[in-house]
Design goal:
By secondary structure, the protein is α+β, with helices and mostly antiparallel strands. It has 9 helices and 11 strands. The protein has helices at about 5-10, 15-20, 25-30, 115-125, 125-155, 155-170, 185-195, 200-210, 225-235; strands spanning about 40, 45-50, 55-65, 65-70, 75-85, 90, 100-105, 110-115, 180, 215, 220-225. The protein has a 4-stranded antiparallel β-sheet with strand order 1-8-3-6. It has a 4-stranded antiparallel β-sheet with strand order 2-7-4-5. A hairpin with a 5-residue loop joins strand 4 (about 65-70) and strand 5 (about 75-85). Helix 1 runs parallel beside helix 9 and helix 7 (about 185-195) crosses helix 8. The radius of gyration is 18 Å and the shape is globular.
Length: about 240
Amino acid sequence: MRVADLLHYSRNASIHELCLPHSLSPLALAQLGDEVWRERQLVRGETLFRQGHGMHALYCVTYGLLKTVIVDNEGREQITGFHFPTELAGLDALPRREHVCMASAVTASRVRVLPLHRLQEAMHQAPALRDAFVDLVGRALAQHEQLLLVVNQRRSIERLAILLLSFSCRLGRNGRAATVLRLPMSRAEIANYLGLTQETVSRAFRRLQTAGMLTVRGKNVTLTDPARLTRCATEDWSETY
């Protein structure tokens, strides 16, 4: 299924916002040039940047998976996002030059590091690149707002359906949504992100699988009926599940 078709089925702004990746266009990446990047390897669980620390760089995931987490004053953690290959991490620090969350590797990962001073030089030389970053930050903020609405207002099965559709769009290629998703994060991490319990997430997976909308084999999730899953996510699906 094409991403455009999936979004057409949804007729819902929250699906559209949450399906947009945190990545720059090929043109913007070309304007940065390969010479401004350096690579960094991360082992599973390794921290990339910490909450409250100053911003030194942006990071483009080239392999693996990152998660961002906010820790409150009592030590409770809330996952705020997952970052797949081609997506940028560290955008949270652009407005104030200070990270409001921490980022760590869910699996062994690799990132391209874009030092802040090199980014500033590149944006000064290419105003279109600066505009691209402004647009990207705006999309990230819009996604955060939509996620809050999803977590606060949707039923558990709808939350999971929206998340899977978001991953489907973001992991797709050439304008087509992915139907086979490799999800290395744990059920506990998905539950934390969606504001649910782990058992509730597991039950939602079972219900969607029983209804024929997906199949689950370990970390692999296949969307067998994306259109129906989209109707479920947007409260348009009237069948019993």
